Structure prediction request, 43 residues.
Amino acid sequence: MKPKETKICARCGRPFTNRKQWASRGIWPQVKYCSNRCRHGAK
Ligand SMILES: [Zn+2]
Prediction:
């Protein structure tokens, strides 16, 4: 079985897993943030 694809968000420091929208676009290797909110630097 595949290990779960997990990363730590570069902003909030929480672990998150791959998402369909990332997997389908093939951008998972580039994803650094858990959500759009973190990606855009919401305060
Ligand atoms: Zn985050």
In short: The first helix runs from residue 20 to 25.
